[in-house]
Write a sequence for this structure.
């Protein structure tokens, strides 16, 4: 039964048995149709004034309704026996709508004040739904979102208190759950190095991560992570000098004790989905994917734009489903090299990337410069802006000012 029919039914019950107004738990806000809400409010006023509640009396109070319309409304419910059914349906529809709206606000990433208001407003709705055991009739992601929010001791939206880079914190408000971040650049700019810098900062904050790399092997990733963390050049690492080995052991052991990082190299998308589910079950909060254009789906062999659209849309859903942040690296088209600076339409292969991403960052770096430019071109819950961070290429290391 839809919302309109249930609201008509409950008003018809009130016309048949006005005494039901004394015991109903309904309020004006529960009605979605404005006319029905006003009619219900008028019935309550008439009850308080000890007036007769019938089709003729109500039509005399309201100019926008006629006696025939009221008589027609009173025939919707032949008997008031189904009063409780109509009442439950109206409250259920109201709570479902409220929870859906709040879950969307959470997904969009509102501020802490909004979350306080949501908590205060939604406890009653969530408890009512659990009591009535109608969870299966709701959108599962809505219920899971609100249930996780109310029963989690963690921050409801933030994974960490800092990205490790103060300028970036100002724009992105740290790493957020539910968000799909896109870091895009032309080849050889340093996307993978920036990704590893973010990953190692997270590990120092006791955050477990995972990396899906389709260009580098697990050994290469470990070597780069050691170089940027220990300030050791790759060639020194390969020489296996005693003092270098001792330095690396002392530094890396402290990080390994705090957190771990899973590394996957399969580029098939069904493997990526399965690996993300496995990693989340083992405590991973942030997933890095390097990079989008190398992912493959067997059913999309000829239409790459549709494949990329399917991938980004699914990754966005996975971020919300598992309550994690996904950082997706992407390449820019060749047109970006001719432009003064990259724009959103330069994202390669599909327009869906900018549509599904919560935050889009572009990287630019002069090969002979010691800085890397990060330009935020899309930000769902903050400002867009520009920052230049020191970058030491021999260590693959990005520094904070």
């Amino acid at each position: 039964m839809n919302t309109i029919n249930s609201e008509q039914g409950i008003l018809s019950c009130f016309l048949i048995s006005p005494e039901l107004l004394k015991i109903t738990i309904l309020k004006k806000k529960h009605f979605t149709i404005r006319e029905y809400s006003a009619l219900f409010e008028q019935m309550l006023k008439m009850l308080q004034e000890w007036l007769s509640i019938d089709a003729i009396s109500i039509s005399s109070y309201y100019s926008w309704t006629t006696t025939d319309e009221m008589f027609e409304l009173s025939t919707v419910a032949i008997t008031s026996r189904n009063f409780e059914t109509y009442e439950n349906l109206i409250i259920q529809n109201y709570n479902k709508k409220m929870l859906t709206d709040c879950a969307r606000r959470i997904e969009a990433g509102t501020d802490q004040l909004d979350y306080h208001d949501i908590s205060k407003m939604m406890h009653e709705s969530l408890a009512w739904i659990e009591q009535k055991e109608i969870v299966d009739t709701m959108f599962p992601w809505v219920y899971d979102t609100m249930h996780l929010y109310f029963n989690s001791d963690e921050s409801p939206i933030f994974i960490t208190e800092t990205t490790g880079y103060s300028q970036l914190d100002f724009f992105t408000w740290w790493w957020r759950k539910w968000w799909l971040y896109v870091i895009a650049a032309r080849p050889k700019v340093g996307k993978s190095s920036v990704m590893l810098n973010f990953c190692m900062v997270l590990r120092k904050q006791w955050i477990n991560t995972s990396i899906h790399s389709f260009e580098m092997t697990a050994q290469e990733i470990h070597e780069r992570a050691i170089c940027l963390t220990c300030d050791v050049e790759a060639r020194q690492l390969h020489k296996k000098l005693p003092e270098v080995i001792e330095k690396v052991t002392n530094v890396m052991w402290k990080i390994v004790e705090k957190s771990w990082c899973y590394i996957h190299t399969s580029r098939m998308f069904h493997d990526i989905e399965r690996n993300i589910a496995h990693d989340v079950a083992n405590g991973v909060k942030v997933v890095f994917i390097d990079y989008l254009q190398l992912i493959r789906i067997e059913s999309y062999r000829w239409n790459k734009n549709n494949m990329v659209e399917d991938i980004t849309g699914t990754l966005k859903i996975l971020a919300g489903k598992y309550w994690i942040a996904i950082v997706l690296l992407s390449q820019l088209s060749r047109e970006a090299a001719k432009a003064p600076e990259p724009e959103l339409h330069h994202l390669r292969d599909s327009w869906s990337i900018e549509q599904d991403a919560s935050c889009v960052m572009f990287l630019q770096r002069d090969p002979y410069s010691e800085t890397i430019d990060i330009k935020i071109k899309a930000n769902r819950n903050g400002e867009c802006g520009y920052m230049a961070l020191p970058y030491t290429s021999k260590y693959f290391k990005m520094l904070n000012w």
Observations:
- Confidence is low (pLDDT under 50) at residues 110-116, 132-139.
- The domain at 3-151 is CATH 1.10.860.10 (DNAb Helicase; Chain A).
- The longest strand covers residues 371-379.
